[in-house]
Amino acid sequence: MNHLAGETSPYLAQHADNPVDWHPWGEPALALARTEGRPILLSIGYSACHWCHVMAHESFEHEATAKVMNERFVNIKVDREERPDLDRAYQLAHHLLTRQSGGWPLTAFLDPETLLPFFTGTYFPRTPRHGLPGFVDVLIRISDAWGERTEDIREQGDKLRDIVQQLDDAKAESKLADAALLRAGREQLGKLYDPDGGGFGNAPKFPMPGAVERLLRHWQRGRASGGQPDREALDMVMTTLTKMARGGIFDHLGGGFCRYSTDREWMIPHFEKMLCDNGSLLALYADAMAVAPDALFEGALGDTAGWMMREMQHPSGGYYAALDADSDGGEGRHYVWRRHEVKRLLTEDEYLVVETLYGLDRPANFEGKWHLHRRDSWRSVAERLYLDAEAAALLLASARAKLFDHRSERPRPARDEKVLAAWNGLAIHGMVQAALRLSEPAWIDSAATAAAFVRERMVQDERLMASWTGGTARHPAYLDDYANMLRGVLALLEARWDDADFAFARLLADGLLTLFLDEEAGGFWFTAHDHEELIHRPKPVLDDALPPGNAIAVRALVAFGHLTAESRYLDAAHATLDWARGFAERQPAAHSALLTATEEATEPGETVILRGPSNLIQPWLEAARDGYQPTRRVYAIPYDSQAPSYLPRLVTAEARARVTAFVCRDLVCSPPIGELDDFPSALT
Question: How far apart are CA 381 and CA 654, in angstroms?
Answer without folding.
Answer: 58
